[in-house]
Amino acid sequence: MPDQVYIEGQGLVDLTSEEQTAFDARRASDAAWRTEDLRAERNRKLAETDWVVIKEREEGGSVSNFTDWKTYRQALRDITNSATSLDDVTWPEKPE
To answer: How do the domains of the chain map onto residue ranges?
Structure first.
């Protein structure tokens, strides 16, 4: 799916294939964008596990491996200490 840009009076418009290629090349060469992509994926992974924290808090200790989840979530938060992009990241193992 192509990225979109906002054009006043038209709303969100898909990039053409040429625009998308140029956009992707710039994004790949820009360290700030690579870090932003890494953080976005990290945040998505954290959001996927929010239910564990909510369940633990609401039910007071009902998640048997909560310590494993806490460790996993902290490793996700710390990921930018060791990785600078999605190309060089090693994601922690999600508990079962």
So the answer is: 4-81
